[in-house]
Write a structure and sequence with these properties.
The complex is a heterodimer. Chain A contains five helices and three strands, in the order βααβααβα. Chain A is mainly alpha-helical. Chain B has a domain of 104 residues: Four Helix Bundle (Hemerythrin (Met), subunit A) (Up-down Bundle). Classes of the chains: A mainly alpha, B mainly alpha.
């Protein structure tokens, strides 16, 4: 199982798109896709950052469905968030919303 | 000759020591058995018990006071930061978009939400209100989701403006100072 610690690469998660600034959700999503192509069993650790904006989360995780990553694979991603446990529910909602939109 | 005298001295000292110990013990047991001393013993034990009870009560009270003071300090900081976040987020959403400033403003709002959730965790640790998962999720979404960024400035009756006001009010109701008893 691979554990991705967001803070190790993006200590200050940024805006939604790359064009808006560094450490964007779009950039993070591309890293996620690269990692998913190497290892399907993945855990994302959300702790120790300066904080996530909803746009970042939506683009990173809802965006996985939009770019065509199979829903089962996206749903299989596990999360660690001791500092802000509600982040996990929020991400799951973005994934579910996007799956519903695609149906 | 000299060693014999030493042995004799040692025996005398041992005997004296035993006499002292038994004498002290006898005296103590004697006091316990002395019916005229019952009142004295009762007063001694009663005073000891009262002292211990007072010490425990004071310690418990001080511990609780420290906990309440710590809780109230966190709550004060939480409410101050919540007021700042409410003002800044309403200001952000109710003014026209400005690409050069917006990314910085949104980054600040995002950090402020994280500061609030961190303080809320500390409040829970000192025995305060439990961490409000749902409210913080709604707050983050209302403040930092850029879905309607192109529609700015939003009107005062826009659902996002109403959401920010409603959620911050709910959080203020949840996180209140406790009275020091």
């Amino acid at each position: 199982m691979k554990i991705i610690k967001v803070a190790s690469r993006y200590p200050c998660p940024g805006p939604r798109y790359k064009k808006l600034g560094p450490s964007s959700g779009e950039e993070f999503r591309e890293w996620l896709i690269k990692e998913l192509s190497e290892e399907c069993d993945m855990t994302v650790d959300l702790d120790d950052t300066e904080g996530f904006g909803s746009s970042f989360l939506e683009e990173a995780f809802g965006g996985l469905i939009r770019v065509g990553i199979p829903p089962d694979l996206v749903k299989s991603i596990k999360f660690i968030s001791h500092e802000e446990p509600e982040l996990i529910d929020e991400i799951q909602e973005y994934i579910d919303d996007e799956i519903a939109n695609n149906e | 000759m000299s060693s014999g005298m030493n042995k004799s001295d040692d025996l005398d000292m041992l005997s004296a020591s035993e006499d002292f110990e038994y004498g002290w013990l006898d005296g103590f047991v004697g006091l316990l058995q002395d019916e005229t001393q019952y009142v004295t013993w009762f007063l001694v034990l009663f005073t000891c018990a009262i002292s211990i009870i007072i010490a425990i009560v004071q310690w418990t009270k001080n511990k609780e006071l420290t906990r309440v003071a710590s809780h109230n300090e966190w709550v004060r900081e939480f409410r101050e930061k919540l007021a700042v976040l409410e003002d800044e987020s309403l200001n952000f959403w109710m003014t026209a978009a400005n690409d050069s400033r917006d990314v910085i403003s949104m980054g600040r709002l995002t950090r402020e939400v994280k500061e609030l959730t961190t303080i809320a965790s500390e409040i829970a640790k000192v025995g305060g209100n439990i961490y409000q998962k749902e409210l913080f999720k709604d707050l983050r979404r209302a403040v930092t989701n850029d879905k309607e960024n192109d529609d700015r400035p939003l009107n005062a009756d826009h659902y996002r403006i109403i959401s920010i006001k409603t959620i911050t009010t709910k959080l203020r109701r949840q996180y209140k100072r406790r009275p020091c008893k």
